[in-house]
């Protein structure tokens, strides 16, 4: 599991751990997974994306809890696998892959950052994948959007855009990290990785339903 990790040293300086590498890794991974599995489940991998697709009327709302359960379980299993193959030193230095708010940023800046990048991700998904099943470039567009989002805000919040991706490493980190390596704000701002993505996804749905849907557009 690739991660953008923002850590603090003793003098509170901020280290952005290889954001370009993480952006490319995430982008290519999502590109491949959506291309390979999109015809089976839609290739969401993200509770906020599932919410956007369901709220836009492109999937049954009754399927949402099952998607969310699978996504949260997948996030935990991915983080657990990473923890099992890393040394304790590697695990501690990366905070188990947790997405952490840069201490130089306020909570609302982090929340808005997550909301904006999730908006762009969900907007791309709704227009290129959910709105039509004939766009063969949809996986590439989604992967590139994810990469750009990480490049733009990775140093602020880690650019999660995905509550499952953020919750899994936090839970695993709480279990396996050395107590001295757990940052003081490990859970303090975790809520922004839920509120921000769902806010951004909801805005994407409203704009899509009002102005962009091919069918059932509310404003014509």
What does this protein look like?
This protein has 220 residues and is mainly α. It has 8 helices and 2 strands, in the order ββαααααααα. β1 and β2 form a beta hairpin.
Please outline the helices and strands.
Layout: E1 6-8, E2 14-16, H1 19-41, H2 47-55, H3 64-85, H4 88-94, H5 107-130, H6 138-157, H7 163-176, H8 192-212
Antiparallel strand pairs: 1-2
Strand content: under 5%
Q: Classify the secondary structure makeup into a structural class.
A: mainly alpha
Major β-sheet, in short?
2 strands, antiparallel
The whole-angstrom Rg is: 17 Å
Which strand order does the major sheet show? 1-2
Tally of structural domains: 1
Overall pLDDT level: 91
At the first level of CATH, the class is Mainly Alpha
What is the CATH-assigned architecture?
Up-down Bundle
Give the count of helical stretches: 8
Assign the CATH topology. Glycerol uptake facilitator protein
Q: Bin the helical content.
A: 55-70%
Q: What's the name of the CATH homologous superfamily? A: Glycerol uptake facilitator protein
Keywords: Membrane, Repeat, Transmembrane, Transmembrane helix, Transport
Organism: Ancylostoma duodenale
Main location: membrane
Subcellular location: Endomembrane system
